[in-house]
Known about the structure:
The complex is a heterodimer. Chain A is an alpha/beta fold.
Amino acid sequence: MAGKICVINAKGGCGKTTISTHLAAALASSGLKTALADWDRHRGATHWIKQRPKSAPNIELADWHKSFGKVPKGIQQIVIDCPASLKSKRVRQVAEEADVIVVPILPSIFDEYATKLFLRDLAEIKRIRKKRKKVLMVSNRHRANSVASRRLDDYLEKLGHPANHHISDRSIYPQLAAQGLTVFDLETKPMFERQMEWLPLVRDIETSVQLPDLKKGKSKKLKS
Amino acid sequence: METEVRFSINKKNKKSVQKWLSQHKQIFQNSETVYFDTSKNALRDAGVELRLRRNGKGIKQTIKSVGPNGSLFTRTESEIQLSDFEPKLSHLKKFLTREKLCRIDFARLRPAFRTKVNRTIINNPTKNGMVQSVFDVGEIKADAETQEIMEVEHELKQGSTDTLLETCHEFLDRVPCSIGLEGKAARGYRLVTGEYPEPVFASKISISPDLPLPKAMREILQTSFQHAMTNLPVYLLTGHPESVHQFRVGLRRLRAALSAFAPILHLQNSGGLILQMKSIFNDFGSLRDADVFLDETLAALKNSTIPSSYYLILQEQVQQFRDQRFQEARDTLESTDFARFIIDMNSWIDSEEWLAQRRPIDQLMFERPIGVFAESRIQKMNQKLLKAGRRAEVGDLEDWHRLRIMTKKVRYASEPLLGIIGGKKGPSFAKSLSKLQDTLGKLNDLNSIETFLAQVSLNVERTDRQAFNEAAAFCVGWGAASASTAVDNLQPSWRKFKMHMRKTWS
């Protein structure tokens, strides 16, 4: 059974698709058979995969709009780019069944408020409330010296969900996304520096997701 | 654990060794060592050597594991001081389980053979450690039989294996010698039993799926390398054709493992070792071809309409060619360059420098267990095999030849991985791959007759050349006709394999 990484936040535009594509690319570049499930209504992940060059490590697309819950055959890890909501039963079910939940958040007052409500809803899931499932808070577009980023860190600390990881604000991300790439697909010194920034998050995810037993690696569909 | 590299010295190079040793303070000793075993050599069969050594004032008991442990030059060793010259059997508990110990009849323990040597010892300090070098000149004695000893052993006493490598290179630069892969004990047992070593076949590599990728890879590479190396003394002592074949199989397995994991390896920093390995492998190729021709092709030809004069000249000339190649191969194996290659290759495998570590993301890969990659690697190789098969189905002999090479690669590279996956499908797939390789191999033997005999022809005396060429032409014609029939037979074998493969991995 594939490991499931759910990238979710009820607030739109917080970088769910950027985080999802990067996590998928990191796992694929490090030798795992990886799929990216596109469940966001904007279908950014689908568009991104279509742009992706053939020479880049393969990431399989799972279109969850067409076939909800489908995990392609032989896949070891699936990253789910979720819609900006936790209201529907299905989203809740996916969050419940995921091995780890990644919550991107931007340093802005609007995101802080929306995330607070989202985390409250998330806590309704028993395994999350009982801290049996890891929820990783990722401060996205982080600027170490900015007031907004510092305030976000303090805010999350007070909420009881301190930021586990920081991804810095760089113009390279949208440039790479337009070509279907990530920082894991290029071998230049600046890209290596960016990879270093992502490594702690990927490692943290790996410790939460048990790598699938290959002998039982069958395709599995979520209950729809 | 003992890490030690041994070099055999030719008498004519004795002075060079003494000159090299004279750079350091030398200790001279007369040493007598007695190896103990039962009359049926139960200790050796249980995988240990037990010896008592008297030198200077003390008596030392040493127990070593038979054969390498982890790395080619590493063995498990334990030493204790004794007050009298009687083996202390409780010491064996460190090496053997209670079950194994119970099976040994210690009442029959007796001195099996002894060595008497004049030793020159130096302690060679380097920047990062210390190596002890010992020059032994003497003999091994067993009943009425004796064998001379002249060898240098470099043992790592402190520091990393780089220290040992450095000393070995420094030594090889000054003293022409050959690698000594057989210890005194192995030679002593041969004197006792009169038994020559048999070709060593590949042992099953059993790797836990939880082992991190670099460690698992290292184990696969080391096991393959050691498989090749353990056949060297067999080849040098007996010239057994199978030992040449197994030597090449070991190197091929090593190359196949490197090729199977190529995407995550960085082979550019091997310092030419891969090329050197390839060249050694190819050097032994014509010897192997000669063995196959003499054992298999000639046997098949005998049943054809071949005139006996053709048969005899082919047999005679190929045998001569084989003897020449055998001597050349022997010279290669006993050369200083080959000794250098062995120690460098072993060190390169142990160093894990073959891992691609250029991207930070590679760190993640190397923390993962091999089990995560095994099946996907096999699937990837199978896809290549299917592609080569599709070409061969509609292609010519050359395409079948390519399929044969791919089958070989997939077979050798997938064997350790199939063990990792476990279950029933591994052994069954390995068996069907081996069957396919055998069928394709027969075609190759027929297909390569022309090239091989052209090579032999270069060595044939001018007076015999005309007769040889006529016989060779008959043989090539026979081979081409047989190859054409063999291709027809290959189609069903390939289809059967393809079906089995799809069933296993779907």
